[in-house]
Model the fold of this input.
Amino acid sequence: MNYKKLVLKSGRERSLLNRHPWVFSGAVKTLPEAQNGDIVEVRTNHNELLGFGFFAPNSQIVCRVFEFTDSYIKIDENFWFKKMQNAFLLRKRLLNFEQTNCYRLLHAEGDFIPGIIVDIYNQVAVVQLLIKGMERISTQLFAGLNQLGFTHIYLKTKQSTQLLEQVEQESKWVGEAQAMPIRVLENGVPFEVNVETGQKTGFFLDQRDNRQIVGNWAAGRKVLNTFSYSGGFSLYALQAGARLVHSVDSSKEAIALCNANVSLLKNANVHESFTQDCFEFLIASETGFYDIIILDPPAFAKNARAVPNATRGYKNLNALGFQKIKPGGLILTFSCSQHIDKELFRKIVFGAAAESRRNVRILQQLSQPQDHPINIFHPEGEYLKGLLLQVD
Ligand code: SAH
Done:
C-alpha cells in the first residue's frame, strides 16, 4: 500500500527522531494531498521515512504518528489488534481483575495509539475517539475489543478542549446496549457507574492509587472529600473504617451518584453529602475538624491562557485546606490541568503553605496510575499531579 507523503522542513525532524508523536503545521514543507484521517508517511527533507501517522489538515497538529519506522509496514486490522493486545497484556499484569475490573485499556499516546481512549467497566468498553483517523478505523478497533472479550462497546463523545478536530460522532452503543448502571470493583471497593450519563467515561479511573492511599490512612479519622463526584475517595475512607466522611460537590447529579455508591457499604451512616460549592463549604467549616482533606478540583486551566487564573484558584483552594486541617492532619491535593506542570503545581502549593505559617511536609508525590502510562517522548501525557502532605 502506498501512502501520501508529508515532508518536513529541513531541520524540523528532531522532535520526531526523538519519537514525539506530533507534527505541528509549522514544521511541514509539503503537505500530502490527503483527506482528514488518512494515513500518511512522514518524511524528512531528505526523503527519509520517519514513520506513519494520521493526517489532520485543519488541526495545528497536522499529523499524529502512531508508528516510528524507517521501513514499510502493513497497517491492517491485525496491526491495530497487536497494539490493543499489548495494551491489554500490560493491564493484565498490572491489575488483579477480581479486585479491580474498571481501568484504562488504551491511553492514547501512552499506548502508542494516539487519538483514542478506551476505559473498561467490567465487560463494557467505553471508547472516545479524538481524531478523524481513529474514527476511520473504528470498525477494526471495535472488532479488536470484541476479540479481547469486551462484549459491549459504548462510543462516547468527548466534550473537551482536548478534542483537537471535529469528529462527527454521537454517543451510542455499538451493537447491543448494556443496562445502566454497571457494578464494578476498584481495589475491592464497589461502585456503580453510568457510562451514558456520567462525567468522563463514567468514573475517574485515574485516582485509583490515590484513593488507596486514603484507604490506608482513614481508619478512625474524619475525612473531607471535596469535589467528590461519585464518591471515589469517600468510599475508600468508609470501607477503611473512617469515623466520619463528608463529600462535597456542586453538582446534584454527582451527589446523587455519590449517595448511591455510599449506600453499597455497611457504614453509610457515618457519611454525609453536601451539594455545595467547595470553596464556600471550606470557608464555613470548623477549623481543625478534619484529619484528612482531599482537594481534587476539575482542571482549572483548560488552556495556556487560563493558567494565571487557575494558579490563583489552586492557591486559594490549598490555602483553605492548610487553614482548616487539624494539626498533624493530611491533605491530598491534586491538579489535572495539562497546562500546569508538576513544578508549577508544587510552587502554588508552596505559596499556600507559606501563607498558612504551619509546617508542611510532602510525604509522597502523587500521579496517575500505571494503566495511564506516560510515553516518555510525550510528556504532555503526564496530566495528573498531586501531593500527599502532612500539616503540623
Ligand atoms: N475526585 C473525584 C473527581 C472530581 S471531578 C473522583 O475521585 O471521582 C471534579 C468534580 O468537581 C465534578 O464532579 C464537579 O461537579 C465538581 N465541581 C466543580 N467545581 C466545583 C465547585 N466549585 N464546588 C464543588 N464542586 C465542584
